[in-house]
Amino acid sequence: MASDSLRFLKENVVLEAERVHSTFSMDEPGVFHKRDDICDLQTLKEKAQIKIISEEENRLEFDLIGVDASFANALRRIIIDEIPTMAIEKVFFADNTGLMHEEMLAHRLGLVPIKADPSLFSERGPNEDATDYNTLVFTLNVKCERDPNDTSKLINEHVLSGHLVWSPQGGQEERFKDCAPEPAIKDIVITKLAENQEIELQAFCEKGIGQIHAKWSPVCTASYRLMPNIIMKEDVLGEEAVKFSNCFSPGVIEVVVVNGVKKAVVANPRNDSMSRECLRHKEFEDKVVLARKRDHFIFLVESDGRLSARRIVEDAFKVLTAKCENVKKYL
Hints:
alpha+beta, RNA Polymerase Alpha Subunit, Chain A, domain 2, six-stranded antiparallel sheet, 7 helices, DNA-directed RNA polymerase, DNA-directed RNA polymerase activity, transferase
C-alpha cells in the first residue's frame, strides 16, 4: 500500500482544497536512498511521446508525454524566444503629416507580423550593409481624402498593415515569385489620418529572434498545463451525482444511469480547469482525489501568421537538439 501511494505521488501533483503538494520531481538522483532515478537516453526514448490533438494553420494543440517539466519548459521558451522570423527593424520617413509621432509609428510597424520564410535570409550584422539576402523593403504611401462618390465619407482614414507594399530588391522578385512577402494580417490599424493628412515611408525588415525583441517572437501564445487526473475513491450516486457533475467544467463528469440509479463517472478529465469546487463540499471530500499527471503536458501553440504552428514546433525541436549537441561537445 505504501509503495502504491509513493508511486502515485511520484507520478502526480496532488490538489487539495487549500493547497497543492508533491510538486517537486522525484525522478532525480538522491531523492530515495540508494536509488538512482536518472533517466538515460534509452528510457527517454521508450517513455517520450507526442500526440497531436488538433491542428490548424496557425494553431496546434499536442500532448507531450513522458518528459520532465524542465524539458517542456525549455521547449516552450525556445518557441517564444529562439525561432527566427522577419520583422520591421528600420523605418525611413519621407512625409508624415498625421498626429502620431514617427517613433510611435515605427514601433507599431515593427510589431506587424511579416510573412516571409526566415530560412531564406541571413542575419544582418551591426556593420553590415543591407542586401537582398538579409533585408526586405516595404513601402507605405497613404493619403486621406474625401470619397468622390460620397463626400460624407473619407478614404484611407485608417492606415492598415495591408497598405504595406513589398518592394523587391536585387534578385528577390525571382526568388519569391511564388511566395511574395507580405503582412501576415492585413487589417491591423497602424494609425488614423484626418482629411489631407498623409504618410510616406520605407520600412526595412531584418531577421531576428524574440530573445532580442518581442516583435520577432513567432507566437501569440505558447503555453502548457498538466493533464488533470480525477480518481473516484467511492461512487457518487443519486442527486449527489448531479451536484458533483456541476462542480466541474462541462463534459468532465457525466451522469449515467446504472440499474436505475444515477452515477457520476469521469468522462473527459482533459477539459477540467481544476477549480477544486468539489472539495469545498463536505459530502465529496473523501470520495475523490484531484491530481495532475506530472509527465503529461498539454501544449497549445498559436502562431501570429508568419509561420505555421507546426513549423514553429518542428523548428523548436531542432533548436533544442542543437543545444544538446553543443553541450555534448564540452562534456
